[in-house]
Amino acid sequence: AVWAERHLLSFCNRPKLTETYTEDTWLKLRDAVGAIQNSTSIKYNLEELYQAVENLCSYKVSPMLYKQLRQVCEDHVQAQIHQFREYPSLLSFLKRMNRCWQDHCRQTIMIRSIFLFLDRTYVLQNSLLPSIWDTGLELFRTHIVSDSMVQSRAVEGILEQIERERNGETVDRSLLRSLLGMLSDLQVYKESFEQRFLVETERLYAAEGQRLMLERDVPEYLHHVARRLDEENDRIISYLDQSTQKPLISTVEKQLLGEHMTAILQKGLCTLLDENRVTELTLLYQLFSKVKGGLPVLLQFWRDYIKNFGGEIVGSPEKDKDMVQELLDFKDKMDNVAHRCFQRNETFINAMKEAFESFINKRPNKPAELIAKYVDSKLRAGNKEATEEELERILDKIMIIFRFIHGKDVFEAFYKKDLAKRLLVGKSASVDAEKSMLSKLKHECGAAFTSKLEGMFKDMELSKDIMIQFKQYMQNQSEPSNIELTVNILTMGYWPTYTPMEVHLPAEMVKLQEVFKMFYLGKHSGRKLQWQPTLGHAVLKAEFKEGKKELQVSLFQTLVLLMFNEGEEFTLEEIQTATGIEDGELRRTLQSLACGKARVLNKNPRGKDVEDGDRFNFNNDFKHKLFRIKINQIQMKETVEEQVSTTERVFQDRQYQIDAAVVRIMKMRKTLSHNLLVSELYNQLKFPVKPGDLKKRIESLIDRDYMERDKESPNQYHYVA
User: Fold this and answer.
1) What is the DSSP string of 178-204?
2) Using CA atoms, how far apart are residues 250 and 629, in angstroms rounded to an integer?
3) Which residues are bridge partners to 554 per DSSP?
4) How far is residue 383 CA from its own chain's centroid?
5) Structure confidence at residue 184 as a pLDDT band (50, 70, 90)
6) pLDDT digits over 663-675, tens only?
7) Of 311, 229, 297, 228, which Cα lies nearest the Cα of 269?
8) Which residues are CB-neighbours of 705 under 8 A, at least 6 positions away?
9) In this predicted structure, what is the pLDDT of residue 382?
């Protein structure tokens, strides 16, 4: 209401339009504009000037007023160009340019406030006319910034300041922010500045990248690149236009990283991984993930590194003793890198698995054998390295390595042999740990893989029950024995194959065997017992000068020691005749008794090896701090013959499996080409096999009339029913 009243009074008091009034009013307005442009005081009241503009617009002289105002502003801006002709220093030129721009903006805002009515009526109604502010920008752009000399020097000056800052000098960032804001407001930022800026950036970082790749090591270079990227991002925040961010960062990454990806990885990845430089590896991954094609290149080098490093562990026979532990340590290390440095990237984790599977199978069978032996060393009694929780963690890690192995049947054969020794000689550290390992194998390979191993445990449980019954049986005998006999009844199909060995047992032992045989066959008619002395063991009571001792010994050691109840001294040949022990086994047995830590026998002549003609006598002066002394560790050691026979047995089993698979496939298909048969076999067989081996088995089956070649096409096979 108040505004309407004032507006009505203003309208009533409005002077009549005459040519003289219009000219006088314009002169007054022009003087005010001139005062603003020259930064001098305005003679008139601003409200009075605003009212004068409103009066002129109300009397339809807006076109003339807009035209005259534009002309006055244009004349003033044109006059400013002369001040930029002589400035020897680029920095002083930039400061002058900035002052001129700031003054122009302030003046344009002031002029617009006086001519606001004109801006909001006439100009707004004519869409083709720029506003007073836009007119001010257009005039400054046309007459100042578009001048080739002014624009060239301004851009050169800005680029010089940025280069100085990149070289470590301090520059006036507010000056750069203001000037670049001016170019952006005038809509010449991209064409006049950004293109040249990106070209200069590319030139600078291309040279810097080539120079520093030669001068610095990779960790130092990576930190430098990260620092450069942070600096450029800071420039964008501080004074560059936001639209420059993407092309600028892309240029820096391309020149410092993209052009040197292969060189960086060739020069430094192996060192970073060897030294487990987690910080630098994390930085490497972060930087390479920003560059197009960076991660695929890193992935390939990572895969190659694992294959090469792992190949050295597996491919060096001299490292066999520590192979499995080194593989576990290497896997832990690579897992740590994949999770901490490579952000759990699935592609990198899968590549690591593929690389492990590749190198671990480059040397067939041996890794599987050594993994089985490593598990044996951990599950064997006397292993004080780990608590139950730590042992469980070790077994979990072992299973990860186990998954990579193709020849799992080799592992099974050696694991079964070692498990048998642990169970029969009583050297298993923990039944829970044994069953835990069995459960892991069953989960990994299926019930068929562990059925025989589970059978071994069942046999041991059943044997305990049988021995309870046998003890009761012995108590009812008229002539109880003074020897306590323990027998393990083993199902032949479950346990490793042991070569039968006939040895000469003392009469007391033979009698006990017969008693047990009568007892057992009386309960289980139709069964056949075959005694296996190889893994038998006993506790002997011995008397030395120092006093009585108990010796925990193998059955073969028992037979040798019992001879010294009958005589003072025996030769190797005499002992062999008396005991019937096989020559190689006897030499190992005598070596353990006369050349080991616990020397209960003396050997003449002295020496580490047992030779023909060596003589042995009882060591009455034997001393030991313990009452019960274990001398039967010899039973747990694997002989070369055992290793060879286990490996040969695996290969024999493989031949049977190939034969069975061929017959099974041919029986189902009736007729099949050679290539399709081989393809089917590769799908069914769970162990690595060469095409030549398959061909030999096929030929063998043809010879045995299980199948025949097609008479017209030799590569075609027919099943023979």
Assistant:
1) HHHHHHHHTT-IIIIIIHHHHHHHHHH
2) 75
3) 537
4) 31
5) very high
6) 888 888 888 888 8
7) 297
8) 720
9) 62
Query: 253: which residues sit within 8 A by CB, 6+ positions away?
Result: 229, 287, 290, 291
Dist. CA 248–CA 194, nearest whole Å:
9
Tokens linked to 638: 């694997």
For residue 258, what are its two tokens? 């993209």
Question: What is the 3 state secondary structure string of 63-94?
Answer: HHHHHHHHHHHHHHHHHHHHHHCCCCCHHHHH
Q: Is the pLDDT of residue 11 over 50?
A: no
- From residue 264, how far is each of 219, 289, 297 by CA, in Å? 10, 14, 11
Residues 677, 678, 680, 681, CA torsion sign: positive
Give 160's contacts (C-beta < 8 A, 6+ positions apart): 90
Q: Which single residue is written with the structure tokens 């170019």? A: 183
Residue 136 Cα distances to 142, 180, 230, 394, angstroms: 10, 18, 37, 78
Q: Say if residue 51 is exposed, middle or buried (CB neighbours under 10 Å; 0-12, 13-18, 19+).
A: middle
Average pLDDT over residues 49-56: 88
Residue 712 is encoded by which pair of tokens?
A: 């017209």
Q: How far apart are CA 39 and CA 41, in angstroms?
A: 7
CB 590 within 8 A of CB 609: no
Could you tell me what percent of the chain has a pLDDT over 70?
93
Q: Tell me which amino acid residue 530 is.
A: Q
554 Cβ contact list (under 8 Å, min separation 6): 536, 537, 538, 589, 632, 634, 635
Which residues, 6+ apart, have CB-to-CB distance to 148 below 8 Å? Answer: none
Say which DSSP state 194 is in.
I
Tokens of 210: 């080539």
| CB atoms inside a 10 Å sphere around CB 553 | 27
Contacts of 704 (CB under 8 A, 6+ apart): none
Which amino acid, 658? I
Q: Which of 119, 114, 122 is nearest to 133 (CA)?
A: 119
- 3-state SS, 636-659, equals CCCCHHHHHHHHHHHHHHHHHHHH
616, 570 contact by CB (below 8 A): yes
Rounded to whole angstroms, the Cα distance separating 158 from 545 reads 102
Residue 203 makes CB contacts below 8 A (sequence gap 6+) with none
CA 459 to chain centre: 43
Q: Which two tokens stand for residue 364?
A: 């067939």
Sign of CA dihedral 248, 249, 254, 257: positive
Q: Can you list the alpha helix ranges (DSSP code H) found in 476-606?
A: 507-523, 555-562, 572-579, 583-594
Q: How far apart are CA 518 and CA 540, in angstroms?
A: 26
Type of residue at 253: E
Residue 571, φ and ψ in degrees, nearest 5: -90, 170
Q: Pull the structure tokens for residue 306.
A: 């694992």
CB 665 within 8 A of CB 672: yes
DSSP tag of 282: H
The residues that bridge with 628 in the sheet, in sequence order, are 550
Return the C-alpha torsion angle 27, 29, 30, 31, nearest 10.
90
Residue 676 tokens, joined: 């399709």
Q: Could you tell me if 508 and 538 are in contact, meaning their C-beta atoms sit under 8 angstroms apart?
A: no
Tell me the CA distances in angstroms from 240 to 193, 197, 199, 309, one per residue in order.
Answer: 10, 10, 15, 47
**549 beta partners:** 542
> Is residue 262 predicted with pLDDT exceeding 50?
yes
Asked if residues 240 and 293 have their Cβ atoms less than 8 Å apart, the reply is: no
Separation of alpha carbons 305 and 307, rounded Å = 5
Report the distance separating Cα 10 and Cα 28, nearest Å.
19
Q: Are 526 and 516 in contact (CB under 8 A)?
A: no
pLDDT of 233: 95
pTM above 0.85, yes or no: no
> Which H or E run contains 135?
helix 132-140
- Number of residues assigned to the chain: 721
Nearest residue to 103 via CA among 140, 55, 66, 135:
140
